[in-house]
Fold:
Amino acid sequence: MRRTNSVRTGESTLIRKDIKSLSAYHVPDSSGMIKLDAMENPFKLPESLKVSWDACLSSVDINRYPDAEMAELRTKIAHHAGVNADQILLGNGSDEIIQMIIMAIDPGTCVVPSPTFVMYDLISRWFKRPVATVPLANDFSLNADQFLQVCGREKAEIAFLACPNNPTGNLWPEETIARIANGFDGLLVIDEAYGPFSERSHTHLVASNVLVLRTFSKLGWAGLRLGYVIGEAETIAHLNKVRMPYNINALTQAAASFLLDHFDLFEMQATEIKKERKRMSKALQTFNGVNTFPSQANFILMQVPDANALFDQLKTHGILIKNMHASGGLLSNCLRITIGSKDENDAVLAAMDDIINGVSA
Ligand SMILES: Cc1ncc(COP(=O)(O)O)c(C=O)c1O
Structure:
């Protein structure tokens, strides 16, 4: 249709109505606070690596476009993941890969558990893809038969399972995930964003309709924005057609390649975080009215008598966590707290002691 040249006045009319009704992804200001709201790794790069790190980054020719095929980095990541390089596609964070997958799959419903990671729903909406949800039980378990029934009823084209799930932190049994992978004839994306902190991976389930999604964000490289998806080579080749040229910038490519050579460091940090998770889970439970849920991720979900009040009080104590209360349902009065360094976690416990028991550190 031809557009007229008339000057548009008032509210922009060119933006889709459904986009206008969305809210932009909100990131709260965390300046000066202990930041435990976004599942970041608390550890900075050790001083001992700084000289070689500086040399690595300063050798990057930023006047040139990055390596478009990222052959070297893909090979390194494939080696790390135990698959072939042609089974790997890289994204600017796994968020970008979720977008690529949703773009590339035939129109049709996306099925997700509820609650789960919000971006599956949000990105589906951007592409006018309907979303159907399957409620988790009170203990956050997922009924595979019910999930498959909803997929069948909706003639779903795509489904996402975050394993472990965000924001609940639990990992559904392997048989639940395998049952869905085997019984669903659309595309299943198994999202292992929290895989480094959990007891198992699902790469053995990769098939023509099953992908495994991963990110380095939670393991310590959130600032680099790098994720990858593992699939059959043919699926990956097709997904690669909706990848923006040069989507992984030259500094990220160089940095990730460097960090992969020091991967044992990040695995040690993940082990430390898992230890702290155990300690925090036990310690948080001791506070009156606080119920923590089992977690296989680098965060803990806890239910408290008044989430809004505790969230605000922790903020007053200089601690930023994530308040899930507004989501309602199973997340009513729930707070999600990222596992920080030992000192950060101690600060949380001291603040909780002050708030709940009136004991100042
Ligand atoms: C389950 C899950 N998948 C994917 C992501 C996105 O990670 P990134 O885009 O940083 O790789 C997150 C981030 O919180 C997540 O919780």
Observations:
- The chain has twelve helices and 13 strands.
